[in-house]
Design a protein that fits this description.
The structure is a homodimer of 335-residue chains. Chain A has 335 residues and is an alpha/beta fold. In chain A, 44% of the residues lie in helices and 16% in strands. Chain A has two domains: 176 residues, Rossmann fold, CATH 3.40.50; 132 residues, Rossmann fold, CATH 3.40.50. In chain A, helix 1 packs across helix 2 and helix 5 crosses helix 13. At the A-B interface, helix 4, helix 5, strand 2, helix 6 and helix 11 of A face helix 4, helix 5, strand 2, helix 6 and helix 11 of B. The structure holds a DNA duplex (16 and 16 nucleotides).
DNA sequence: TTGTAAGCGTTATCAG
DNA sequence: CTGATAACGCTTACAA
């Protein structure tokens, strides 16, 4: 079924059919009605390939999600889908492995889908520096700051990871904790990992707390299992910390279980603060104290920003969305 | 950049270029080398739209995921991605709202992408009955049984939901629990919800346990928050159950928190069994006893089955993957 | 082994 | 307001 068939069926020409199906002016009401009806009857759908071949671009908005099992991104995608579905643009969501290069992937998808714009959920500066100049479409990097990258088509919406991590650690310090351990991301190769690490260090420095990254910091991946293992390693070599900051909620949850298995109670023996503000944290016993990232707001701002960039060619922006410390049950004042 | 440009550049014709880029025979090694090099140099990529327009089908495998925040599906997608990436087929993952019609969506995507085959993660019989006859490509329905649907191109890979739910409830009964409540899915409109409910009922009947669905069953959605609320409602109207079966781990986790908030300890006061075997269950305190669905195996079988259907035109199959009862810390024998 | 040319289903430009 | 027709970039007979 093509517009040619429709043309034969209705007696109009392909030109008219095309105009009707694309809501263009200069068609008589009669023709429009007849054609729409005929199209409806046989469930006609334009061939997207032909359409895009002709138009040289898809009308779609692309979301590239770095990491397949990232809770935070999953709920952000959910919000984004809801938001974008209110517009006329179809949304394509592309999930990729955490270890692969998101920008190379984007370059390839651009060639393939010619999207109107791209939302990156997660990303690594280095990849952007190396490959982003091949991308022309307006883009928004979400959860990482792009203001230092200086590309003419790359905005960003992110939390202030450094400040947030500092806040988390400060929270522990103010409750009287002096011996604090940290489980975080790779502080060399991941922007997020590095910034959160630096935030911790800033807090330790400011309050004059002793902290030796070699001993008190565990770098690992953002998963339950890795959080668990990291906490075990910490326990093995340092038996007396009373506060633990984990740079993600999943790490925190894994770590808490490791602490429990080692006979430590949370928060009686050890206070734990997470990072992200996932739903699950509110259903643990004890409920997890955490740095809450406002997923809904980040999603809204990102989409808004991208659409502005697409439609009005408004300038770049680098938005920082504030985080909040959610003080719940996994921390306790030190006696 | 098109194959025409490439032709001009290399001195060969578009036909030869196309043959080289598609790995077809009847090209001289010299031509092949020259063309491949030129293509490499300018990072040439075939235009997928033109290609698919011509070929009348994409080479992709499509995964339609019903529900955007379903942990179980998320990890299944991860496995599927790993599996399919070993083949030559690109994988397109499409997430949709739990309440929307997955088959209609598939019909639309077929028109658009002309995929080689489709994997449905989750689905509703009714939607299949109504719309599936419009789909020609081989499909596999994952997590639901399709043997009673009788379509010539629809296989399935699923757990025996009824048996699994029965096993879970039996587990509680054998530990001496006589007063058992159940939090499950919609037993009218969801296949999964209905089957798991029937499994429970079968166990109650077999062991002569009293169970009034009106009082002892709470139908709700598969989320933490809904599990929490459902447990509260149960507590409000029935104060004395000692066993709780939740038809998904997320419901179970929400429910446990509600029990804790009501001053009940798990498992000392109330034993809880979940369903799915999510990673998170193993990191809770207490670790969640649950019916474990082998995600990895379901993914492997589904992909294998679909590829067989695509490549060898092998017959339909309706595979049932066994579940296992994972007995952990959230249950206790009744005194 | 290679080149030529006819479409694939649309859109868009023109003339009517 | 409508119809004819030339692209869009590619694959694939068929001819050379």
């Amino acid at each position: 079924m093509t517009i040619k068939d429709l043309a034969a069926q209705t007696g109009y020409s392909v030109g008219t059919i095309s105009r009707v199906l694309n809501n263009q002016p200069n068609v008589s009401a009669k023709a429009k009605a007849a054609i729409l009806q005929a199209a409806e009857e046989c469930g006609f759908q334009l061939n997207a390939n032909a359409q895009q071949l002709k138009q040289q671009h898809g009308k779609s908005v692309l979301v590239i999600v770095k990491g397949t099992s990232n809770e935070l991104f999953a709920s952000m995608v959910e919000s984004i889908q809801a938001l974008v579905s209110q517009t006329a643009y179809p949304l394509i969501v592309d999930y990729m492995d955490e270890d692969h290069n998101e920008v190379q992937r984007a370059v390839q998808l651009c060639l393939e889908k010619k999207p109107l714009g791209i939302l990156f959920l997660g990303g690594n500066s280095e990849n952007f520096c190396q490959y982003f100049d091949k991308i022309q479409a307006p883009c928004v990097l979400v959860t990482n700051d792009a203001s230092q990258l200086h590309f003419p088509n790359l905005s960003s919406v992110s939390s202030d990871d450094m400040l947030a991590a500092k806040t988390a650690v400060e929270h522990l310090i103010r409750l009287g904790h002096k011996k604090i351990a940290v489980i975080g991301g790779d502080k060399e190769n991941s922007d997020t990992g590095r910034l959160r690490f630096q935030g911790c260090m800033a807090a330790f420095r400011q309050y004059g707390i002793e902290f030796d990254p070699e001993i008190d910091y565990e770098a690992t991946r953002f998963s339950f299992a890795d959080g668990y293992k990291a906490a075990r390693r910490l326990l093995e070599r340092k038996k007396d910390f009373t506060g633990l900051f984990a740079a993600s909620d999943v790490m925190a949850i894994g770590a808490i279980r490791a602490l429990n298995d080692a006979g430590k109670r949370v928060p009686e023996d050890i206070s734990v603060v997470g990072f992200d503000g996932l739903d699950i944290g509110g259903y643990m016993t004890p409920r997890l104290s955490t740095i809450h990232q406002n997923v809904e707001e980040m999603a809204r701002k990102s989409v808004q920003l991208l659409l502005d960039n697409i439609e009005n060619k408004k300038g770049l922006r680098f938005i920082t969305v504030p985080v909040t410390l959610k003080c719940r049950e996994s921390v306790k004042m030190v006696e």
